[in-house]
Structures are given as C-alpha cells and as structure tokens.
Write a structure and sequence with these properties.
Helices cover about 45% and strands about 15% of the residues. With about 475 residues, it is of the alpha/beta class. It comes from Kurthia populi.
C-alpha cells in the first residue's frame, strides 16, 4: 500500500506536512534517522504511519506519563486497538495484561526507566521490533547527565540485532544532536533539520521588579486573549497565580509535579476541552499537550536553558495563528535560576558519604541526599573514578551556568529572534512584523484585546479588583 493511501485511510489526511514524507521514507529504507521538526509539525506521524508498513512492534521511548497517555489516546482515536503504555499509571491488572501480551501490540510505549529493567530488556530480546523511536530525544542531552541518567543507557537495553532508530525532537543544537546519535549508538544517520523559527510567535522580554511582576502578568492576561500558560518555578506560585486570575473572572487553574497523577490528568483534560483558559504551571506541564489555539505563553522567571525556553514557548500558535511569548525578568533572575538548576547536583560530601556507605541507597532514606542526586551520583560512580566524578559534577554545574547566562544574554539582545535562531546554529533570513520587543512590537496587533468582550460595568469592576490585588514576593 502506498504511503499516500495509508495517510488517507488510516489518519484521514490528504497530504503530508513539510518534512514528514522524507523522514518516513528514510525510516522505511532502514536508516537510523534524526529528525528535528518544530512543535506542531506532526512528529508523531513519522512513527505512526510506519507502524502500518513494517513488521513487528513499534517501540516508543517517551519521557513523561502524560505524553505517553496522550499518544496512546491519539492512536486509539485513529482506530488503533493494539497500542499500550507500560508505566506506573496502570493498575496491577492492566500491567499484567500488557506484560502478558507484550509482543502482540503494534505500538508499545515505555519510559527510559522502564526500559532499564532487566525483565523488560530480556523480553525485548525475544520480540520482533519494527522500529525503535526515541521521542523528545533532546532529553538525552538535557536530562541524561544530571537528572535522569537512564537516558544515557537506552542503547544498552536495545537488542543487538535491532531495527532502525528514529530520534525525534523540536529543538537541538549541534552538540545535542551529537549527544543523541552517540548515546543511542546510531549509525550512518539520515538527518532532517527544519528551522526552529516560528514566524507566528512573537517574543517579548520585560524587565520588572518582584513587587510589580504579579500585577503586570494578571493585567496582561485580562487585557489580551488566551488560552495561555503561565510558567513559574514555584509550586506555591502556581496556586497563587491561579487564585488571582480567578478573582478577576478568568477561568484558570494550576498544575505542578507534586499533584496526584489523576489530578494532573484532570487539569490537562480541562485545558484541552476549553473548560479552563489558563494554566498556571511549573515546567512539569506542557510536553504532550497538543492544544492548537494557545495564544500566549508567559514566564515569570528566566528558564534554565534556551532549549527549555524554546520547548515551552513552542506550545503556542500551533494552529498557525499569531501568538505572544512574554518573559518577565528581574536583575537577579540568572542567579536564582542557577540555584534552582544546581539544587539536585551531588556534592563532594555526597561522594564521600556514598563511598563510605555499604548500602548507598540508605542515604536517600536517611534524608542525606535527594533521590535525583543519588541516581545521578550512582550512575557516574559506576562510570568514573571518584576524583573524576567530582570533576564531572563541577563540569555539569559550569555548563548549567553557561546555559543560564546564554538565555539571559538573548532576552536582552537587540533582536531576540535573531539570537534564538543563532543559538541553534541557524541564520535568520527574514523578520516578521512585530518580531520581538527588541525590534519593537504592538501587542494589540498580535492579539485581540480580551477586555473588549466584557460589558463596561464588568470591566470597571475588573479594573478595580486588579488595582487592589496584592502582589506577592
């Protein structure tokens, strides 16, 4: 069956989006493939369609439960029944069912941590795999070294006689691409790179103070149309923003990694079904959220690196409509962000305690080390000598500082867009109207005013309440 016919019959699309067909053809030709497609360009189809051409299971290694669940539900909407995700979200009975029918699924989703288990490794050795997919592959470089070391061990878990690997991401520098291909053990790689520049996303950076920031954000939300996402670093702050927005009549709620899984899934569904217009969230929210009409992304802080920032703002304007990405920052933001970025890195003291302890895992149970710091340290202690581990941790801290400072420099540049594109080793050839705050932009030309939708009396009431809101520190 021809690709065009499968596209129409299975997925209901009349034509491929830019880049999709070339990537699919490379995979079907047996090539290891690295594909960078901007958010909203249909990366998932690049492995979904081959599932109806190749023999064997399509193994998808995915970073988040919410992302897996979204991808599973998307395939089921296309009529696929032989699809499952093996993760902690499943009940005991459902896990048993997936395990018993492991090699019967057309699409099977696993996390890197699940892939690292001996039971799963052994099962994969006995299976017929048609394609191995690493979704959001930039996480190998972004998370593998200092957050989720299982990402660096993916290649070790794969069968020696494996099918092609397809690594997918929206953003990656040349160094990140080298990390991806190296740690996945990819060979003779076919690479497809599409520009990270999204002309319909307009960038704004606003210097402010802690005292002014909250009211500025609330005022922007009430003045210009959503839906949108407000990103903040603090779980407490997500709740405070949501409360303030609710006080002025905006349908808003909060989301963070400390919530129960069921509650997080409920919030996602509310947002997807337009039951709430604004999500106030930590960076735990967004990956796998395919909502096309997001008009605004607001940051109240400096993210930890340029790649994270681009991933987050890239969730806006997926329908091709105009979107605004606003970042409110203070002079000390780089310092604060660096503190957050290095919070879970192990120290020399942790290394000494690890070496002195017969059961290092007890350090976590005793509260001497966070779970993340232990997993990172445990990985590197098996790779390097103790002195080299100390040097490696110092290198990671230095890299994080460089990444934070790179973004701090970009948002204060004469043209934010030019510097963002340059960071990903591209050259900006054309600027759109209302390019960025450095070039000058008019929000009213990008987004329709939201307050015009309200009756004058209601508007006066909102303005009074905004004026009397107390900003938080």
């Amino acid at each position: 069956m021809e690709l065009q016919q499968i596209l129409q019959q299975r997925f209901g699309y009349d034509a491929f989006r830019e880049g999709q067909q070339e990537i699919i053809e490379a995979v079907l030709s047996g090539h290891d493939t690295l594909a960078l497609l901007p958010t909203g360009m249909g990366k998932s189809l690049c492995y979904q369609l081959p599932g109806y051409v190749v023999e064997g299971t399509i193994l998808v290694i995915s970073p988040l439960l919410s992302l897996m669940q979204d991808q599973v539900e998307q395939l089921r909407q296309f009529g696929e029944k032989r699809v499952a995700a093996l993760n902690s979200f499943l009940s005991f009975d459902d896990k048993q069912f997936v395990w018993q029918h492991f090699d019967a699924f057309r699409f099977l989703f696993l996390s890197p941590e699940m892939l690292a288990s001996d039971a799963v490794k052994n099962r994969l050795q006995q299976m017929k795999l048609g394609l191995i997919v690493v979704d959001e592959a930039h996480c190998i470089s972004q998370w593998g070294f200092d957050f989720r070391p299982e990402y660096l061990q993916i290649a070790e878990a794969l069968p020696k006689e494996r099918p092609p690997i397809l690594a997918l991401s929206a953003t990656a520098t040349n160094q990140i691409m080298r990390d991806i291909t190296h740690y996945l053990g990819m060979e003779k790689v076919s690479t497809f790179i599409h520009s990270v520049d999204r002309k319909n996303i307009h960038y704004e950076a606003v210097e402010t103070t802690s005292f002014e920031k909250a009211n500025a954000i609330i005022q922007q939300v009430t003045q210009f149309e959503g839906p949108g996402i407000i990103y903040t670093q603090s779980r407490k702050r997500t709740m405070e923003y949501a409360s303030m927005l609710q006080q002025v009549g905006i349908r808003a709620t909060f989301y963070h990694g400390g919530m129960e899984q069921q509650d997080r899934m409920f919030v996602q569904r509310q947002f997807m079904h337009d039951e709430v217009d604004w999500i106030c969230a930590t960076n735990a929210f967004g990956m796998g959220i395919h909502k096309n009409n997001i008009r605004q992304i607001i940051h109240d802080h400096l993210p930890q690196n340029v790649a994270s920032y681009m991933q987050e703002v890239g969730r806006a304007g997926r329908d091709g409509g105009e979107a605004l990405a606003t970042l409110y920052y203070e002079k000390r933001d780089a310092e604060r962000t660096l503190e957050m970025a290095t919070l879970d890195l192990p120290t020399d003291w942790h290394i000494s305690r690890y070496m002195a302890c017969e059961e290092p895992q007890q350090l976590v149970e005793a509260g001497e080390m966070t779970e993340t710091a232990f997993r990172v340290l445990h990985y590197w202690m098996r790779q390097l000598a103790p002195l080299q581990v100390s040097q490696k941790i110092q290198e990671l801290a230095s890299e994080k500082q460089q990444q934070v400072m790179a973004l701090a420099k970009i948002i204060t540049a004469p043209c934010i867009r030019t510097q963002l594109v340059a960071y990903f080793d591209e050259e900006l050839l054309e600027k759109p109207k209302n390019c960025c705050s450095g070039c000058g932009l008019q929000k009213s030309e990008i987004l329709a005013p939201y307050i015009e939708k309200n009756e004058p009396k209601a508007l006066e009431n909102w303005q009074w309440r905004l004026k009397h809101l107390l900003p938080f520190n």
